[in-house]
From TrEMBL:
This is Alpha/beta hydrolase fold-3 domain-containing protein. It holds the Pfam family Say1_Mug180. It comes from the Eukaryota. Gene3D superfamilies: alpha/beta hydrolase. InterPro entries: AB_hydrolase_fold (IPR029058), EutQ (IPR010424), Say1-like (IPR019436).
């Protein structure tokens, strides 16, 4: 049942949206990147609404399962984009193909996508739309050999506490690996990024299972690595404080003891298998993970300049990836400055690493504010990555470029 507060929040949504629309001619909508777009101001209001629900109340929204989003909503909206081999077909209990490449070999890449939503919200159509956009924007030689599997993991609002999802990912990953597949890309947004990182710790711990290969690549989209902020992060000079006016996440979101119990139970979240950012960082926890360090592997991280979680993502990248990037000391004004906003390695004597701060980006920009790339791909099937506005579609362009560069596909003449 939805709580009384939940009912007020839900009934309040149309009022919030109306208020956003009424104010728009005067205040120009959201602050920062999405100023001057009513549609994006409304999207931001909806995102804030979904996050503000208690974990229990979100169980009602979460009745719309990943399977329904893929097989009904997105399939109906994008009939031409979803005519893909095995689109919507279940692989196992907790995963569904968006595409399984025709005649794929076991060495062709499988992208395993872990959706965001705080471990209490389901996959949204926007996740699938952004993923499909990236897929169609890949160079054809890569695209035709690439498969994408979406993980439909259990949510905290249905009793699956944080820390259990990684075992569902492990079950799917092991099943694929035992079938001989060895070319994995782990991709996740927000808490999905957390899941991907925690999974690396699990693989590290379970090196006694030598048949499990390390993921070839990791793609972290606005990863939520430190689930609970320290109190001093809520003071000026920290992204938790300074970006509140731009972002969808509020500062006391995870400091609410009821939310903590609903997500963690009575477990201590300061644990490498739950919230790595809440454990004092040691480079040695990450230095022997090939995906992050060894030649032939690669890792991509994107975080938004105006994102509340920005400092935490950059901190993890400093310890785990050797990234020198610090939180920007001055506002970018929306312009990209490579020395301030990007750390990229050559990949010639170690893993290829690309850490990017999106100027004025907010949490989940690439998913919830760029997903309309799918509409573009639908109406202009010939569209190419270079045709996309690199500012408006910053995240989708950067992620697709990374995939285009790093996906390793088998050659025509292989079996
Ligand atoms: C897959 O293999 C079948 C049977 O060999 C063949 O008819 C089909 O054209 C192949 N598809 C692709 C995309 O290569
Ligand atoms: C994709 O990668 C190939 C080389 O692997 C490169 O020639 C091409 O320009 C890249 N395309 C994009 C859109 O980045």
């Amino acid at each position: 049942m939805v709580s009384v507060i939940g009912i007020f929040i839900i009934l309040g949504l149309p009022i919030r949206l109306l208020w956003t629309a009424i104010k728009y001619p005067f205040d120009g909508g959201a602050k920062g990147k999405y100023h001057n777009s009513l549609a994006k101001a409304l999207k931001l209001a909806i995102c804030k609404f979904a996050i503000s629900l208690s974990v229990e109340d979100s169980s009602v929204l979460a009745l719309v399962k990943t399977n329904f989003v893929i097989n009904t909503i997105v399939k109906t909206l994008y009939p031409s984009l979803t005519k893909l081999n095995n689109y919507g077909k279940r692989y196992d209990e907790q995963s569904i193909w968006l595409v399984e490449a025709d005649n794929r070999t076991k060495s062709d890449p499988i992208i395993i996508f872990c959706h965001g939503g705080g471990f209490f919200l389901e996959t949204q159509p926007q996740h699938i739309e952004s993923l499909l956009s990236m897929y169609y924007l890949l160079e054809e030689v890569k695209r035709e050999r690439t498969s994408i599997l979406v993980l439909e993991y259990g949510l905290a609002c249905h009793g699956h506490l944080i820390g259990t999802q990684v075992h569902e990912l492990a079950a799917t990953y092991s099943k694929l690996a035992l079938e001989g597949n060895d070319n994995f890309v782990l991709m996740g947004d927000s808490c999905g990024g957390n899941l991907a990182i925690v999974f690396l710790q699990l693989l590290k711990q379970e090196q006694k299972m030598p048949q499990l290969p390390w993921p070839k690549s990791l793609v972290l989209i606005c990863p939520w690595i430190k689930i609970v902020p320290d109190k001093d992060q809520l003071t000026p000079g920290h992204s938790y404080h300074d970006n509140l006016k731009y972002d969808m996440v509020s500062e006391n979101f995870m400091l609410d003891p009821k939310r903590q119990v609903a997500l963690f139970g009575n477990k201590d979240y300061a644990d490498l298998f739950i919230s790595p950012g809440n454990v004092p960082y040691k480079a040695s926890d990450w230095s022997d993970i090939p995906t992050l360090h060894n030649k032939g592997y690669s890792t991509f991280v994107i975080t938004g300049e105006h994102e509340v979680f920005r400092d935490d993502a950059l901190e993890w990248a400093r310890y785990a990836l050797g990234s020198p990037l610090q939180p920007p000391s001055q506002d970018s004004g929306g312009g990209f400055k490579p020395f301030v906003h990007e750390f990229e390695t050559s990949g010639s004597d170690g893993a290829y690493i690309d850490v990017v701060v999106e100027p004025w980006g907010i949490h989940e920009s690439a998913i919830f504010f760029e997903h309309n790339a799918a509409g573009l791909v639908k109406s202009h099937p010939q569209v190419q990555l270079k045709d996309l506005d690199p500012v408006e579609y910053f995240g989708i362009v950067r992620i697709t470029e990374f995939l285009n560069r790093t996906l390793v596909v088998s050659q025509e003449d292989e079996d």
